[in-house]
Specification:
mainly alpha; about 270 residues; two-stranded antiparallel sheet; 3-stranded parallel sheet; 8 helices
């Protein structure tokens, strides 16, 4: 769901924003954050940019070579300016910088936790396939925000969903999540129906108790029925689930399903 705070959550985890309340604990992890939109020095040579990612280019450029090899990105020409690179190449360059930064600041070999915010937005199909391969082989953890369902099906093993101001965790890829979510909604509807039947039953019990002519018996019976209503319904009340999605928008076309087709604002 757009606008529910996914990017803000990423920025809080990365230490770029402060939460309104609560705390964020990062346990023994170095974090690399790939935002939706990022800027690189367009007039700078790719090789110079990568040299600046290590402390001593004369001695440490082998680290750059290692990272480029790990990322399987031999297609970056070190003598081209960054502005001439494709969007996919720029993203690979940015990822290389994130990993090199971690290796410069930490003596540990553990790869950084990567936060990838809509990484497929500007990629063509070969770029998306490369990213899927990179994530599958990456030795660390990637947490990804994406609306590309095909990409999610290929790249992820767990889905985190923010719904009803709560965090829900589903094992598997996007299709697995949909299947589990449908079952979850059906079970929720069953629980809601049973709850409302029980509510109706106990409210009728209260009304019947109020009709008792003996005052003392009436008072005890009403209190007992109200306690049951509070215990069996009110204290664990659930609301009817509201599915927040568009059902009436239909767009036909032959564009790759992972690409943005329409951007609507205000």
């Amino acid at each position: 769901e757009s606008g529910c705070g996914k990017t803000t959550l990423f920025r809080i985890i990365a230490g770029l924003e402060t939460p309104d309340y609560g705390t964020v604990e990062v346990r023994d992890e170095t974090i690399g954050y790939l935002p939706q939109e990022f800027e690189l020095p367009s007039e700078e040579l790719t090789g110079i940019f990568l040299e600046n990612c290590v402390d001593d280019p004369a001695k440490d450029f082998y680290k750059v070579t290692e990272v480029l090899s790990d990322l399987k990105i031999p297609d970056i020409d070190l003598y081209l300016t960054i502005g001439t690179l494709s969007e996919g190449q720029k993203m690979k360059l940015y990822l290389a910088k994130l990993i090199l930064d971690q290796r410069q600041t930490s003596a540990r070999a553990k790869p950084p936790l990567l936060l990838l915010d809509e990484p497929t937005n500007h990629l063509d199909l070969p770029g998306i396939l490369w990213l899927e391969s990179f994530i599958a082989e990456y030795a660390g953890i990637c947490i990804i925000i994406s609306h590309d369902r095909s990409f999610l099906n290929s790249a992820v093993e767990k889905i985190f969903e923010m719904d009803e101001k709560q965090l829900f965790i589903f094992e598997g890829n996007y299709d697995d999540y949909i299947e589990q979510k449908v079952s979850w909604i059906e079970e929720r509807e069953k629980q809601y129906t049973l709850q409302e039947k029980q509510r109706e039953k106990l409210e009728q019990l209260i009304e019947n108790a109020r009709k008792i002519s003996n005052g003392k018996k009436r008072g005890r019976a009403v209190k007992a029925a109200k306690r049951r209503l509070a215990r069996e319904v009110t204290s664990r009340e659930i609301s009817q689930y509201r599915d927040m999605c568009l059902n009436s928008l239909r767009i036909s076309g032959s564009v790759h399903s992972g690409k943005k087709m329409l951007d609507v604002k205000d």
